[in-house]
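Pasting as-is:
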Amino acid sequence: MQTISLSTHLEASQQVAWDVISDHSLYGSFTGTSQVTLEKQGTPHTNGVGAIRVFHVGPIRIREEITTFEPPKQMAYRVLSLPLPLRNCRSDLLLVPCEDGGSCTLHWDSWFELAIPFTGGVLRRVVAVQINKIVAGIAAEVARRADSAS
């Protein structure tokens, strides 16, 4: 099992950060994909448990299913289809409010198994680059929303 973990301080409340991480329509701008669509709505929220979001990267489709949706603190998903030799991919995003009450920390943990032995180093780097890109986009959007609210 391969693991990638990172934590990022966000200069906004847990609720503002939640509004960003739980909105699938924003992820296209974070990932550089042409768009992210909702294939299936979740419950009880549209982006909640059971929602299937699809990342469109040219002709490639990456499908993810939301498995945990606990506003405003935790969201998790599993990858249903991915054009990389990985299996059992899943991620957990946890927002922890900071003591100041005006900021929070995003903890992102991802796990996956290798479909091809001895490719862990390369594939871990590929996945880590993509996660870092998404987290940077989340942080920028959270900061933009916090600035426009003040």
